[in-house]
Amino acid sequence: MKTIILGGGFAGLSALKVNPDALLIDQKSYFTLTHRLVDVVKTGDPKLAKVPYHKVLVAKVRNVDFRKKLVITDRGDFQYDRLLIALGYSQKIFANTEKVEDVQDALKLREKLLKAKSVVVLGGGNLGVELAGAIKEMDPFKDVYLIEAQDRLLSFMTTESSTYAYELLTKLGVKVLLKNKVEKIDNGLVVTNDHEIRADIIISSVGFKGSPMINEMGLTNVNGRMVVDEYLRSVDYNDVYGAGDCATTKQYIPMSAQVAVQAGKRAMLNLLGGEEKFRYKQVAIVVRIGDSYFGDFLGRFVKGELAELAEKVGIFRAVRLVVS
Question: Where is the FAD/NAD(P)-binding domain (predicted)?
Answer without folding.
Answer: 2-264
